[in-house]
Amino acid sequence: MTFDSSKPQPILSANNSMVKHAYSLKVPKKLKLAEDFLCEGFHLVLEAFKSDLRIRFVFATKEALNHPEGLQIKELAKRHKVRCFEVTPQIISYLSDTVSPQGMLAVAKKIDPVLPEMAGGFLLGVYQVQDAGNMGTLFRSAEAFGVKGLLLTEGCCDPFNPKVVRAAMGSLFRVPFFVGKTWQEYFDWSKEKEVASYALTQLASETLVGKTFSTKTALWVGSEGEGLPTELIEACEGRLLIPMSGSVESLNVAVAASIAMFQTGLSNKA
């Protein structure tokens, strides 16, 4: 099939099959079973192209296509032979997950989950974190601080949830991750790969600051409500805490994990 993506084809109806497919990716149960996910906004669509994701097609309003970043996306779509469609603002609003959509959206193939080779470095183990904003922040901080990958247990928020994709700001496309195993299965894999596991918990007595780690380490953080289960903590080689002052008892999981990833990154450079 040949097409000219410099001249986007118009789509005027929400009953179009591609529009219906894109809308289905907003429904959690359908998203879980689908091979695709949504990228919304100029930044994410550009990041998807730059990260070499397989993009199925692009939807954009006439105004968005004439925006400077829209022109970049149109050129990238032409270069990568990705179909680009001009749609109405009403269709964008129908598909959008934001209050004020930018008029640009792409449907992309999901990234395949992979377990890292682990010749060295740090992993983040994530136990049943369900908030999409927190999950996206974990991906973004992981890329920023050189973490090799994320291990997401069953019960975690879907990493392809539109809110996660948006909060990750493109880091989801570049940080390796695996999903859906129990923490026990991840621990079995870690032992096989000689990865030392530590629990980040305020129940610990050893501080994260100044801690020296082995060349292969996994740090585990827990869910927003319950934290890490006792069995997981006891299975770890050690327990670590972030020292805090005042009357603060705990930190948001994304904040705590980001601090921990930053500190382990410093340790790795020391």
Give the topology.
Layout: E1 9-11, H1 17-24, H2 28-33, E2 36-40, H3 42-50, E3 55-60, H4 62-65, H5 68-79, E4 83-87, H6 89-95, E5 104-109, E6 121-126, H7 132-144, E7 149-153, H8 162-168, E8 177-181, H9 183-192, E9 196-200, E10 206-207, E11 216-221, H10 230-235, E12 238-241, H11 253-269
Parallel strand pairs: 1-4, 3-4, 6-7, 6-11, 7-8, 9-11, 9-12, 10-12
Antiparallel strand pairs: 2-5, 3-5
Please sum up the structure shown:
This protein is α/β, with parallel strands linked by helices.
- With strands numbered from the N-terminus, the spatial order across the biggest sheet is 8-7-6-11-9-12-10
Poorly predicted ranges: none
* CATH architectural type of the largest domain: 3-Layer(aba) Sandwich
SS content category: alpha/beta
Number of strands: 12
Number of helices: 11
Name of the CATH class of the largest domain: Alpha Beta
The coarse overall form would be: elongated
Topology order in helix (H) and strand (E) letters: EHHEHEHHEHEEHEHEHEEEHEH
Distance between the termini: 54 Å
Q: What average pLDDT do the residues reach?
A: 93
